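Teaching assistant here, posting this on the class forum so everyone can see the example we discussed in section. The complex has two components, and the goal was to see what a joint structure prediction looks like when all of them are supplied at once.
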Amino acid sequence: MKTIELNRRQFLKTTGVLIVSFNILPPGSDLFGQSSPPASGEPDPTQLDSWIAVSQDGTVTIFTSKVELGTGIETALAQIAAEELDVSLRKIKVDMGDTSKTIDQATTSGSRTIERAGPQVRQAAAAARKELLRLAAERLGAPAEKLTVRDGVVSVAGNPSKRVSYAQLIGGKRFNLKIQAEGRGNELKLAQDVKAKDPKDYTTVGKPVPRFDLPPKVTGEAVYIHDMRVPGMLHGRVIRPPTINTAPLSIDESLVKNIPGFVKVVREGNFVGVVAKTEWSAIRAAEKFQVTWSQPKFKLPANPDELYAYLKNTKSFTTQKGVERGNAAATFEKTKKQYETSYRWPFQLHGMIGPSCAIAEVRGDQATIWSGCQGPFRIRAAVASLLKLPEKNVRVIYRDGSGSYGRLSSDDSSEDAALLSRAVGAPVRVQWSRQDEHGWEPKGPAQTQTLRAGIDDTGKIVAWEFTDYSFPWTVASATTLLASEQIGIKSKSPGQGNGNQGGGEIYAFENIKVAAEQIPWMQSEPFPLRTSNLRAPGQLSRAFASETLLNEIAADLGVDPIELRLRYLTEDKRGTDVLKAVADKARWQKRGAPAGKTNGGTARGRGVAMTRRSGGYAAAVADVEIDKSTGKVAVKRITLAHDCGLIVNPDGVKNQVEGNIIQGASRALLEEVTFNASGVTSLDWASYPILKFPDIPEVDIVLINRQDVAPLGAGELATVPIPAAIASAVFDAVGIKLREVPFTPKRVMAEIQKKT
Amino acid sequence: MAKITLRVNGKNQTIDAEPDMPLLYALRNDLQLNGPKYGCGMAQCGACTVIMTGNAIRSCVTEVKAAANRPITTLEGLGSTKKMHKIQQAFVDEQAVQCGYCINGMIMTTKALLDKTPKPTDSQIKEALAGNLCRCGTHIRILRAVKRASGQLV
């Protein structure tokens, strides 16, 4: 990314015009004349040159299909490369997300970049270092094991005058070295035969490092996808159907034709769009457009009750089985005290602050797409299918996007732009409106759970049954995007499951069964309540259910909720450590029953919750205040302990953890997509509010750095326990059992009144 | 279409535009100033914030004719990566960015705040930024950056 940004700025300096044009050069070439992957065909994962290039000035470029979504991975991957190569961080550049220049390392999602692409980059860098040492040994006439490297300069131990730099050895030239490469995407294993550094020798990894991409982002110099312009570019807008599965019966162009700059109405199948010379003309044309749509073939559930009933009563198409041990159902029947609860979680938005945007240039049988998407290779496959082109004829180039939290795994705007560009024979930029983004983004699925737990005579939880009911997601790899669907390309699959972690499997209950039922949804219809993966998919909801019940049981037994958890974590050191760390940091005082305090009309309480997600652990303590006259819950402080293995960039992790906490609190307190039988009704930030500055809690974070655990992502983990911790604090304060998100004043007030 | 003269970042520039077009599109498309961003078009999120006659305004709902001949400052007018304004520098020092899409609005709102209230209290800062949305959850760092930019202890 950095390389191109610099190019762009240089370009700007010389021309003074913000026009960016990369597609005038053949794929694989580079504006800077830096060494780059093969100029023809796709990069080969077994060639070291596909991963790393050293330029004549000593700059090292790392090529990766992972993209910087605002989470700091560009800098963290650079740290990993710098560490292995013994090069200072300022010399590392990261070129991200261009399908013609990078190997498909899978979509940037699931908080897996550090976990999976990290070792790929590390091993490629280790292989490069080994080769550079071999070359240096030849040049210096000394055995490789006698050589040391300092900031890209190799010298002979004990004789520092004998030295040669990486740039002198290979600058501007190709390595032409084969490396081992097995598997694909996230599972790709690179150069396993090359020994990387021992983490105890790390000097760059583990240091808090300022992010590379920040300075241009605070000055307006960074060029986001929304800011890109290509020569001859037109502006497009898509006219979304008002309701589900509808076709345009007639289109009245009369009001549009007189708009200055109007170019064309594009209709293909049920897809309708408009193209104009300027953005404002396109916006006005989209507003004036008159389309008569057919009647929808079916209606959405009319309200949340109908929706949750649909989820519970519809046969699942697949079960994502979680942990199963002993016989939970049979044991439950025999237990002394039984708990049966159920929980509800609404549709929620990813809520990108910058709505979807992409540029496409389709010329004959070639297409170039610029997109802020999370998975350039997925979008390449989708666009190739849409345009009926071979994938090699489509090039997708990532440009910085608005934070997307899973939404741009399925970047619909790339397809919109591709259809419009093909229709007008010119590059077209499509910018979604706020209303379209709120209405048509694929949302975080609604979920409901049923739980049964039983305790024996000694107060031990001996039976635990957890069932999640959820909708699957649309993903560009399995299901079609909006434009494809609207022109009649059907999904191959009902979508991807919403995951099954967070159902209590972390605890060593003797009899436990955790399962997630995937309920069929008309995923493949162009449909406003379509769904996709939303940060830590499904797990906030499942952890809300399982951790809330656990806190209720603790209070019922008169046992401190941290103490209760520790009883079932005796074999889990990391789980135990994270829980004890948060208790220490929050100065937790044991409580056997709700121990909140009321002062006048304000009740105060604190609660705890924890989770394990994809190998990482987080535990949170929430402190809340409740206004008993309004029901408003104010989250005053969140204390959180976090273990994501070995930490690469502590400040980067902290930034992610803070974001996770705030987004988790926002989702718990405020967020619910509203709808009626015709579609989504929360189409702006007034009807779908998110947490604002005056309501931001203080945060206190403990990072546990584990040198013995490989680095894991920090993009999702910390958000998971937040809703459950808040619910538990509300329970502590006023004794109400919240079973449905969000915890709006109205809902909280109703529960308080029910209790009194 | 009408000829409209805009005074942006100390420079006069005349553009041909529909008078009712929002200022945002004139800045981004006619003047190639990409600091202000499109977020909602309804003055709900703050991504498009610029300073006009000393006030932080929403360029997405300000008609370009209403901005004619009035002094406008955009993010680009504060500083560049070569020479950052102290507010921009404070945002980097505090690493107060995640995706950065909302940051234009945060910085421009802060500029207007500090021009009027050089040493704001925590609650004054929160109040000033209450209409600026951030989805990544960078709020805590942004609050620290504003504090730092105002020369107060963070």
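For the discussion questions: Helices of chain B lie at 23-30, 64-67, 75-78, 86-93, 103-116, 122-128, 139-149. Chain B has two domains: 2-77, 86-149. Think about how each of these relates to the inputs above.
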